[in-house]
Specification:
The chain is α/β, with parallel strands linked by helices. Helix content is about 45%, strand content about 10%. The protein is built from 14 helices and seven strands. It has a five-stranded parallel sheet with strand order 2-3-1-4-5, sandwiched between helices. Helix 8 runs parallel beside helix 13 and helix 13 packs across helix 14. The longest helix is centred in the C-terminal third of the chain and has 22 residues. The protein is globular and about 55 Å long.
Length: about 300
């Protein structure tokens, strides 16, 4: 039975969907047909907790597929996923997609609203409930994991990367910053291929996936959520094709409204130390992530 040998482990809203889409078209890559099986995060909600069902996702891989992978965006957040992957496959490789957590938190909230897991539509109000969400409070019926709505903790990517590197050899981890990928997608795509030991497939176009979007009808989405919950309860893996088609038609795309200056300042203050930690791990100056006058040097002076 073929087994995955590389994992896109996160983070949410940092380009994982686009990268998975690009790689899945490579002739020497077999990618899980389920983008986020979430099998190894045993301390979190798992879509495929059963090992046999999980491994069945890769049964279509052949000898031509030099890289077999999946993308589960909450593996980086999990405290157990990396340990479990290492126990499962000691030669596994990890790809980590990262972005400015100030922007990530806002984008993650919007995604959770779109998916129906977040019932507080106003981001500032939802942010104020972080402590409650960390304790499993103030969530909707559809929320699978309240901790994912604790945006202040969910987006501490410096802390999460540090934990991963404490578990996995650095040589087995490849990091990507969303800003870099947007600036030169082919260059960073080739770096990923090299990391996975794959030849250049000649890809020249790099469409971005998973932009800001919203539902046209909340009622239609509620129906879809009910069916998904029923599927999970009954252990059904087969897709409901008709409902899936209706769901796609219920989506519209739009530009994301900017953060208010006051709220951005709140987020900058919250993530300041974590960005400093990430800067050290990547050996990169990330002070441009702050809109104000702060630099990482000034941050270091205040926090030392």
């Amino acid at each position: 039975m073929p087994k995955p040998n590389f994992f896109i482990v996160g983070a949410p809203k940092a380009g994982t969907t686009s990268l998975a889409f690009w790689l899945s078209a490579h002739p020497n890559v077999y990618f899980s047909p389920e983008k986020e099986p979430h099998h190894f995060n045993s301390d979190d909600h798992r879509s495929y907790p059963d090992l046999a069902a999980y491994e069945a996702l890769f049964q279509g891989a052949t000898e031509d597929h030099l890289a077999i992978g999946e993308a589960s965006t909450w593996y980086l957040y999990s405290k157990e996923a990396a340990h479990n992957i290492e126990a499962y496959r000691g030669d596994a490789r990890y790809i980590v997609c990262l972005r400015n957590p100030i922007e990530m938190a806002y984008s993650l909230h919007e995604q959770k609203v779109f998916l129906g897991y977040e019932h507080i539509l106003d981001f500032e109000k939802a942010w104020s409930l972080n402590a409650d969400r960390a304790e499993g409070k103030m969530t909707s019926t559809w929320c699978r994991n309240p901790r994912h709505l604790d945006y202040g903790s969910a987006c501490l990517i410096g802390e999460q990367l540090e934990r991963l590197l404490g578990t996995v050899q650095r040589s087995k981890v490849h990091t990507l910053l969303l800003d870099d990928v947007k600036d030169n997608p082919r260059q960073h795509y080739l770096q990923v291929l090299s990391f996975l030991g794959l030849p250049d497939d000649g890809r020249e176009t790099f469409p971005l996936r998973n932009p800001a979007k919203e539902r046209k009808s909340k009622l239609a989405h509620t129906l879809m959520q009910t069916m998904v919950l029923l599927k999970e309860t009954l252990g059904i893996r087969k897709s409901f094709g008709l409902l899936g088609g209706l769901e796609k038609k219920n989506v519209t795309y739009r530009d994301r409204d900017p953060l208010s200056p006051a709220m951005r300042e709140v987020l900058e203050n919250h993530f300041r130390d974590d960005i400093k930690r990430l800067s050290g791990l990547l050996d990169r100056d990330l002070s441009h992530w702050f809109k104000g006058s702060d630099t990482l040097d000034s941050v270091a002076k205040r926090t030392s």
